[in-house]
């Protein structure tokens, strides 16, 4: 079985191809600075046109996740309604290809939640949100952003509580560290609205060395400067894997309290 390296929780672990189901209580994790032996040029540019989601290896999740309730966070002014159900949410836009996979579980015992409706949204590589309904502060009145719904999508989780999206690494915008919004519903009832974050060291690599991002000025907000990121940030930061072919994989386990 091929061995793959997953970057998580301030450390690197080597895990097998498929993470086995597990039911562990919360563990105390010390968050240290991660180090990534990667360069921006290691990854594809120009978006997801050359990426086939079905040909990527299965998402690699922690075999022993923290079974905790993910903190609720603000919906924000950039949410819009009537998001399409789809896996590739890019609408052909540029950026570093990112396979974003979530696993939704019951926080009490880590049982997977099947048929949860998960919606995601985030900025493009320029730090701009799409959607005509979004506030002007989100779209910056950018005509291309307003005309579409790029980087917005929704799916139902499978029997393992998982759903995968094909997107790009989000760009930063003033006052916020890079993040992905998520909203989870079941049978029409909203269960959670939250935000998931990226490691600062990885964002430095992407923003400083990837051709689709490096022409922008330096970002003004890091994780420890963002007033919205939770204190238990370790439970709200993606785990990462660099896949063959220049695609970045990000995974997260989201715990529901209800």
From TrEMBL:
Keyword Oxidoreductase (UniProt):
yes
Q: Which InterPro entries does the UniProt record give?
A: Intradiol_dOase_C (IPR000627), Intradiol_dOase_core (IPR015889)
Q: Name one GO molecular function term.
A: ferric iron binding
Where the record annotates domain Intradiol ring-cleavage dioxygenases, the positions are 85-200
The name of this protein is Protocatechuate 3,4-dioxygenase beta subunit
Supply the alphabetized keyword list: Dioxygenase, Oxidoreductase
């Amino acid at each position: 079985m091929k061995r793959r390296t997953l970057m998580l929780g301030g450390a690197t672990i080597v895990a097998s191809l498929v993470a086995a189901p597990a039911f562990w209580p919360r563990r105390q994790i010390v968050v240290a600075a991660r180090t990534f032996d990667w360069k921006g040029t290691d990854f594809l540019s120009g978006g997801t046109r050359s990426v086939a989601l079905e040909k990527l290896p299965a998402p690699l999740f922690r075999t022993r996740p923290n079974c905790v309730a993910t903190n609720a966070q603000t919906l924000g002014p950039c949410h819009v309604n009537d998001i399409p159900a789809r896996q590739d949410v890019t609408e052909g836009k540029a950026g570093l290809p990112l396979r974003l996979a979530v696993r939704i579980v019951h926080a009490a015992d880590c049982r997977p939640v099947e048929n949860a409706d998960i919606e995601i949204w985030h900025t493009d590589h320029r730090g701009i949100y799409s959607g005509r309904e979004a506030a002007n502060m989100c779209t910056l009145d950018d005509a291309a952003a307003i005309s579409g719904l790029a980087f917005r999508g929704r799916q139902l989780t499978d029997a393992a509580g998982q759903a995968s999206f094909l997107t790009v690494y989000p760009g930063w915008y003033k006052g916020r560290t890079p993040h992905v919004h998520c909203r989870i519903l079941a049978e029409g009832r909203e269960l959670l609205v939250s935000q998931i974050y990226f490691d600062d060291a990885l964002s430095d690599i992407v923003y400083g060395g990837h051709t689709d991002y490096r022409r922008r000025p330096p970002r003004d907000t890091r994780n420890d400067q963002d007033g919205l990121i939770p204190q238990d940030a370790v439970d709200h930061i993606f785990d990462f894997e660099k896949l063959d072919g220049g695609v970045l994989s990000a995974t997260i386990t989201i715990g529901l309290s209800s």
